[in-house]
UniProtKB/TrEMBL annotation, chain A:
<feature type="transmembrane region" description="Helical">
    <location>
        <begin position="32"/>
        <end position="52"/>
    </location>
</feature>
<dbReference type="InterPro" id="IPR005769">
    <property type="entry name" value="PhnE/PtxC"/>
</dbReference>
<protein>
    <submittedName>
        <fullName>PhoE</fullName>
    </submittedName>
</protein>
<feature type="transmembrane region" description="Helical">
    <location>
        <begin position="174"/>
        <end position="197"/>
    </location>
</feature>
<dbReference type="Pfam" id="PF00528">
    <property type="entry name" value="BPD_transp_1"/>
</dbReference>
<keyword id="KW-0812">Transmembrane</keyword>
<feature type="transmembrane region" description="Helical">
    <location>
        <begin position="288"/>
        <end position="308"/>
    </location>
</feature>
<dbReference type="GO" id="GO:0005886">
    <property type="term" value="C:plasma membrane"/>
</dbReference>
<feature type="transmembrane region" description="Helical">
    <location>
        <begin position="128"/>
        <end position="153"/>
    </location>
</feature>
Automatic annotation (TrEMBL), chain B:
<comment type="similarity">
    <text>Belongs to the binding-protein-dependent transport system permease family.</text>
</comment>
<feature type="region of interest" description="Disordered">
    <location>
        <begin position="123"/>
        <end position="151"/>
    </location>
</feature>
<dbReference type="GO" id="GO:0015416">
    <property type="term" value="F:ABC-type phosphonate transporter activity"/>
</dbReference>
<feature type="transmembrane region" description="Helical">
    <location>
        <begin position="465"/>
        <end position="485"/>
    </location>
</feature>
<dbReference type="InterPro" id="IPR000515">
    <property type="entry name" value="MetI-like"/>
</dbReference>
<dbReference type="InterPro" id="IPR005769">
    <property type="entry name" value="PhnE/PtxC"/>
</dbReference>
<dbReference type="InterPro" id="IPR035906">
    <property type="entry name" value="MetI-like_sf"/>
</dbReference>
<feature type="transmembrane region" description="Helical">
    <location>
        <begin position="353"/>
        <end position="377"/>
    </location>
</feature>
<dbReference type="GO" id="GO:0005886">
    <property type="term" value="C:plasma membrane"/>
</dbReference>
Length: 324, 516
C-alpha cells in the first residue's frame, strides 16, 4: 500500500456516494446563493452611492478634504470660551454681536439666581421627551389590551386596534409636528403632540406583544372566582407585565430624548433649535457648549435608563433597540 | 376553610397579607406623581394659553386641504358691471369658465380713456339669473394705466357681465354691482353694497354669516363645501371640491382635462402633439414635471431617502463587524482594546444623529451624502454595541471544539463563532435598516437630503397640504414595503437558528440577549 492510497478518500458505497453528491450539490447551491447575494448587495451599494453622489449638492471627492475644515472652524478663541457659553458668563471677546452675547440668554429664577440658557433649553427638551413618553405610554397601556389576542376575544376590535397602532407608528413624526406648528405657531407643544402620537403606536405594539406572552394562569384563577374583565386584567395580567412595560417605557424615553432634539431643530424649540442656529451661524463656542451638553445628557439618560431597566427585569433588559 | 385556618395562612405568609407601606401604595403614589408632573408640564409649556391661542378653524381647513381643493372666483364690482377673476395659478387652467358660476351678460356702455381692450366676445348668456341687469351708464372706473399722454375719455359699448350667481352645494351667492344675495338652504340675506365703503345687510344675520363691525366685510360659511367673503369692492367665494386637482397632468399640459380614454388613444395612436417626440414621451415628461405635484422631484427625493437608509445601514454593518470582534472580551483578550472600542461605539451613538447630520450637511452640502453619513456614524456605534453583546453571549463549546482540532485563530472565528452570530448580526442590521427608513425622513428636514426637506418646505407654505398628504402616503407605502421585506428576510434567517418554543413573530423587535 503506497502513501497515495492512504491520503485518498476512502471508497464510498453507492448510497454513500449519493449522499456525498447531494451534499456537494447543496453546498454548491448555498455558495452560489451567498455569492449571488453579495454581488447583488455590492451592485445595489455602488448604484446607491453613485446616485447619492450625483444628487448631492457637493460631490464626495470634491468635498472630502473640506469636511474636516468645519472642525477646524469650530476651534474657539480660547478653550474657556465654550465653558463661558455653557454657563452664560460674559466673554472677554464680546463685541456686541450675537456670537458672544452669552449673558443675554440667562433665565432668572430670582434677582440673582439664573439657569443658563442652554441648560434651560435642555430641560425643555427633556421635559418634552418625558412628558410625551408619559402621555404615549398611558394611551399605549390603555390600547394594548384591546390588541392582545389572549385578552380581547373580538377579532375585529383587535384588528382595528392593531391597524390603528401601526398607522400611528409609521406616520412621520415630522408631518404631525409641522401640522401642529401651523396651528399653534412655533413652540414645544407641536413636538409634544408629534412624539406622543408616535409613542402611542410604538409602545402600544411592544406592550401588546408582552401581554400576549403573559402567563394566563392568574387570569384563569380570577375568571374561576367570577372576576369581570377589568379585574382579570388589572389583578391577573398587569402585575406580571408591569416590569417589562417599565423597561420598554425607559427604552422609549431614551429614543424620545433624541427625537425631541431633532424635532427641536426643525422649529419645535428646545436644545435642537439652539444647536441648529449656532451651527448655521458659525458660533463655535456656543456649538461646542451645546454639543457637550447634549452628549452628556444623552449618556446620562442612557446610563440611568440601563441601570433602572437592569434593576427592573434583570439581564434580559439589556437589549438595546430603537423599537420604532 | 374556617377563620383559624385563614389566620394560620396569614401568619405563615406575612409578606402577602401585610405588605410594606411602599408596596401597598406604590400604584397610587406613581399615579399621583404622574399627575403632578402633568401639572408641572402644563405650567412649564404654558399649555393653556397655547391651546387658547391656537387657530382651530385653520386646523379644520388644513385637514380638509389634505383631500380636497378650493377654487376661488373673485367677483369685483365695477360701476355698472362685474369682472370675474380666478387666482393666477388656478386649477381650472388659463381660461376658466366653470358651470357653477352662472353669468348674465348684457351690452353696457362705459367710458375708457385709452384704446379699449378688445371687448369680451362671448355670447353665452345665462338664463337662470333672477337679478335685473345693472344700470346702463356710469362714470369710468380707474382706467388701465400705462398711458402717460392725457387720454380722451371715450365711450365704448361692450358685452360685459352684469350679474353672476355662484352655486356652492346647497347655497348660492347672487351678485350684481350693487346687491348681493346670499342663500343657504331656506335662509337668505340681501346685502346692499356701497362700492368702496360699506356692506349692509337688510335683515338680521343668521349664525352662518359673521360681520365683525357694521358695514365691514361679511364672512359667509357654507360648511365643508365652501365659504365666501362679501367685501365692499368684491365678493370672493371659495368652493371646495373633493380629490386632488390635476394630479396627473397640470394645466399647461396638452393632455390636461382630457378623459382617460382620450389620453390613452392619443398616446397609443394619436398624431404627434409635439413633432420632436412621441406622445408617450411627452405625456411621461408632463407627468414628471407636473408643476403642482412635482412627481419627478418627489420620487427622486423618496429614492434618496431609501438610499440614505440602505447605504448608511450597510456601511455601518460592514464597519461595525470587525470592530465588534475587537470589542468583545471573549474574542479579544486585551482589555484596553475592548474598552477603547466600546467607548468609541458609545461616543458614535451618543453624539446624536441630529448632530452628525448638521455636521455633514456643512461638510458635504445638503443632500443624501450628509444623511447617509449621519446614519452611518450613529449606527456604527449602535450596531457595534449590539454585535459585541451578541459575541459575548455565544456558546463557547463550538469554539473549543474547533480549537481542539488545531485550527488557526482565524479558522476558530470563522467556524466556531461566525455561524452562531451571523444570523443575529444580519437580523439586527435588517431591523435597523427598517427603522432607518423612518428616521431618514426626519433628519432630511434639517437639510440632510431626501424627502424630509421637501415635506418640510411643503408644510411651511401652509398651502400645499394635499402635496404633504401625497408624500405621507408615499412614505407610508415605502415603510410598509420595507417592513415586510425586512421581516420576511429576518423570519427566513431566524427560522434556522432560533426555533424558539413560542410562536412569536420574528418581526417583533428581537431583544439582543434573547436571540443570542
Amino acid at each position: 500500500m503506497s502513501a497515495t492510497d492512504v491520503c485518498r478518500a476512502p471508497a464510498l458505497s453507492p448510497v454513500g456516494a449519493t449522499v456525498e453528491r447531494h451534499w456537494r450539490d447543496l453546498a454548491a447551491r448555498r455558495r452560489l446563493y451567498t455569492v449571488g447575494g453579495l454581488v447583488f448587495l455590492f451592485l445595489a451599494l455602488s448604484g446607491s452611492l453613485w446616485f447619492a453622489n450625483e444628487t448631492n449638492a457637493g460631490k464626495f471627492f470634491d468635498r472630502l478634504p473640506h469636511v474636516a475644515d468645519f472642525f477646524a472652524e469650530l476651534k474657539p478663541r480660547d478653550w474657556f470660551d465654550p465653558a463661558r457659553a455653557l454657563f452664560d458668563l460674559p466673554s472677554p471677546y464680546d463685541d456686541g454681536s450675537l456670537k458672544f452675547d452669552y449673558p443675554e440668554g440667562r433665565v432668572y429664577l430670582t434677582q440673582s439666581i439664573y439657569i443658563p440658557e442652554y441648560f434651560h433649553r435642555m430641560i425643555e427638551t427633556l421635559n418634552i421627551a418625558l412628558f410625551s413618553t408619559l402621555v404615549g405610554a398611558t394611551f399605549g397601556f390603555l390600547l394594548c389590551f384591546f390588541a392582545a389576542g389572549n385578552i380581547t376575544a373580538s377579532r375585529w376590535l383587535r384588528f382595528v386596534t392593531r391597524r390603528f397602532l401601526e398607522i400611528v407608528r409609521a406616520f412621520p413624526e415630522i408631518v404631525i409636528a409641522g401640522f401642529f406648528l401651523a396651528i399653534f405657531s412655533l413652540g414645544p407643544i407641536p413636538a409634544i403632540i408629534a412624539v406622543s402620537i408616535h409613542t402611542v403606536g410604538a409602545l402600544g405594539k411592544m406592550f401588546f406583544e408582552v401581554v400576549e406572552n403573559a402567563d394566563m394562569k392568574p387570569e384563569e384563577g380570577l375568571r374561576a372566582v367570577g372576576a369581570n374583565w377589568v379585574e382579570r386584567v388589572w389583578f391577573g395580567i398587569v402585575p406580571q407585565i408591569l416590569p417589562n412595560f417599565m423597561s420598554y417605557f425607559l427604552l422609549r424615553l431614551e429614543i424620545n430624548v433624541r427625537a425631541s432634539t431633532i424635532l427641536g431643530a426643525v422649529g419645535a424649540g428646545g436644545i435642537g433649535e439652539s444647536l441648529r442656529l449656532s451651527i448655521g451661524r458659525g458660533h463655535e463656542a456656543k456649538t461646542i457648549a451645546i454639543v457637550f451638553l447634549l452628549f452628556c445628557t444623552i449618556v446620562a439618560v442612557d446610563q440611568l435608563s440601563a441601570w433602572l431597566r437592569h434593576r427592573l427585569v434583570g439581564r434580559q433588559a439589556f437589549a438595546y433597540g430603537r423599537g420604532e | 376553610m374556617n377563620p383559624d385556618a385563614i389566620d394560620a395562612i396569614a401568619a405563615r405568609h406575612p409578606d402577602a397579607f401585610r405588605r410594606s407601606l411602599w408596596k401597598r401604595y406604590a400604584t397610587p403614589i406613581g399615579i399621583l406623581l404622574c399627575i403632578l408632573y402633568t401639572f408641572y408640564c402644563s405650567w412649564f409649556f404654558s399649555v393653556g394659553s397655547v391651546l387658547e391661542k391656537a387657530n382651530w378653524n385653520l386646523a379644520g381647513a388644513y385637514l380638509a386641504d389634505w383631500v380636497s381643493y378650493e377654487i376661488r372666483p373673485d367677483i369685483e364690482f365695477k360701476d355698472n358691471h362685474l369682472t370675474i377673476d380666478y387666482s393666477r395659478f388656478s386649477k381650472l387652467g388659463s381660461n376658466p369658465n366653470p358651470d357653477w358660476v352662472a353669468k348674465q351678460m348684457a351690452v353696457i356702455e362705459r367710458q375708457v380713456e385709452a384704446a379699449p381692450a378688445p371687448a369680451i366676445a362671448t355670447n353665452k348668456s345665462s338664463q337662470d339669473s333672477f337679478m335685473a341687469p345693472g344700470a346702463p351708464t356710469a362714470e369710468s372706473p380707474a382706467a388701465p394705466s400705462g398711458q402717460s399722454a392725457p387720454a380722451v375719455p371715450e365711450t365704448v359699448r361692450e358685452n360685459a357681465v352684469v350679474a353672476a350667481t355662484v352655486t356652492l352645494g346647497n347655497g348660492q351667492i347672487a351678485v350684481t354691482p350693487s346687491l348681493v344675495t346670499v342663500t343657504r338652504g331656506a335662509e337668505s340675506v340681501v346685502f346692499d353694497i356701497a362700492k368702496g365703503s360699506s356692506v349692509t345687510p337688510r335683515t338680521p344675520l343668521p349664525d352662518w354669516i359673521e360681520q365683525r363691525r357694521p358695514g365691514s366685510t361679511a364672512y359667509v360659511s357654507f360648511g365643508f363645501l365652501g365659504r365666501a367673503e362679501v367685501q365692499n369692492d368684491e365678493v370672493v367665494a371659495w368652493r371646495r371640491f373633493f380629490g386632488w386637482a390635476n394630479f396627473v397632468f397640470d394645466t399647461n399640459s396638452p393632455f390636461w382635462g382630457k378623459p382617460f380614454g382620450e389620453v390613452a388613444s392619443l398616446i397609443v395612436s394619436g398624431a404627434r402633439i409635439n413633432p420632436s417626440r412621441s406622445n408617450a414621451a411627452l405625456a411621461w415628461d408632463n407627468i414628471l414635471n407636473n408643476a403642482e405635484w412635482q412627481h419627478g422631484d418627489v420620487w427622486l427625493k423618496l429614492l434618496q431617502t431609501i438610499v440614505m437608509a440602505f447605504v448608511g445601514t450597510v456601511l455601518a454593518s460592514i464597519v461595525a463587524f470587525p470592530l465588534a470582534f475587537l470589542a468583545a472580551r471573549n474574542v479579544t483578550p486585551s482589555r484596553i482594546a475592548n474598552q477603547v472600542t466600546k467607548r468609541f461605539f458609545d461616543f458614535l451613538r451618543s453624539v446624536d444623529m441630529l448632530i452628525w447630520a448638521l455636521f455633514f450637511t456643512r461638510g458635504f452640502g445638503p443632500g443624501p451624502l450628509a444623511g447617509m453619513s449621519a446614519i452611518f456614524f450613529t449606527d456604527t456605534g449602535t450596531l457595534g454595541k449590539l454585535y459585541s453583546e451578541a459575541l459575548e453571549n455565544i456558546d463557547d463549546k463550538q469554539r473549543e471544539g474547533i480549537r481542539s482540532v488545531g485550527a488557526t485563530p482565524a479558522m476558530v472565528q470563522r467556524y466556531g463563532v461566525l455561524p452562531q452570530v451571523l444570523p443575529v448580526f444580519l437580523s439586527q442590521s435588517l431591523y435597523f435598516w427598517e427603522s432607518n427608513t423612518r428616521s431618514a425622513t426626519i433628519i432630511g428636514a434639517v437639510g440632510a437630503g431626501g424627502i424630509g426637506l421637501k415635506l418640510w418646505e411643503a408644510m411651511r407654505t401652509n398651502t400645499n397640504w394635499a402635496n404633504v398628504f401625497y408624500m405621507v402616503l408615499l412614505i407610508l407605502l415605502v415603510v410598509f414595503v420595507f417592513d415586510n421585506i425586512s421581516s420576511y428576510l429576518r423570519r427566513k434567517l431566524m427560522g434556522s437558528v432560533a426555533n424558539s418554543n413560542d410562536e412569536r413573530r420574528v418581526s417583533a423587535r428581537p431583544p439582543a440577549a434573547q436571540i443570542a
